[in-house]
Please model this.
Amino acid sequence: QVQLVESGGGLVQPGGSLRLSCAASGFAFSRYAMSWYRQAAGKERELVASITNSGGRTTYSDSVKGRFTISRDNAKNMVYLQMNSLKFEDTAVYYCRYLLGRGQGTQVTVSS
Model:
């Protein structure tokens, strides 16, 4: 059974940092690229960051480039999203996703 379980969300002040984690199981994790998406209330889903199966290549949306870092640990079946210099507009539910599924998401709220 495929499972993607996100954690690490929460409430943070503008300028703060959070690290999201996604624990994957039930599929050959190291064979798949992984991504983080987010969806804010009333807005379309946005692809935030992606990482190749080996971790050798990463891509980011313009809105987070230079602030967020995606990484993975294939030995632990984990993917991470380090988020720095958070802004109000980063408030959203963040989802870990691969080709065939996604997790339930974790809420990130940036507020003063």
About this structure: The first strand starts at residue 3 and ends at 7. The mean pLDDT is 97. The two ends are 40 Å apart (CA to CA).
